[in-house]
Fold:
Amino acid sequence: MPTPLVIGITGPVGVGKSTLARELSPCVLSTDNYLPDYADVPESERDDPRHADFTTLLQNIADLRAGNPTEAPIWSFHTHRRESITRLHPHPTIVIEGIHALHQTLRTIIDIRVFVEAPACIRWDRWAHLERTGVRGWGVEKAKVFFNNVAEPTFQRWENEYRTAAHVIVRND
Structure:
């Protein structure tokens, strides 16, 4: 198999990163799965890339690029920690998606960098829908507080850097 193409997709919460990633490849690594256990970091730093486990993510990608399966963590939005692992198999296209998918630590291994954008009101409506259906298990009120106090301010700190690093900007409203 030729060396796989690695696509990185970033954007703020609720913009459609995961949906786009699943359309592009069955081999998707979500940066959410490399989050810290929430009990180990202050709430305001839970989406801060300094706490992300990029070492494991880079190893998972290296395994896949070498044509080998890899065991990637699965992080739970219900328990706010890693719960298990999943076995990923090599594929011609590997997608890394998440709010820090274009972090400088990852950029050198990404062939195509994508920034997805949409207005905050649309993104919040999407996240609220996930909460109403129980996908994440936080509840709408808790999710709204996190959206406003953690997710939005954290991404805004990195938005310009990630937008500038992108090869492609996708509007998803």
User: Anything to note?
Assistant: The CA atoms of residues 78 and 150 lie 17 Å apart. DSSP finds five helices and seven strands in the chain. The chain has a mean pLDDT of 91.
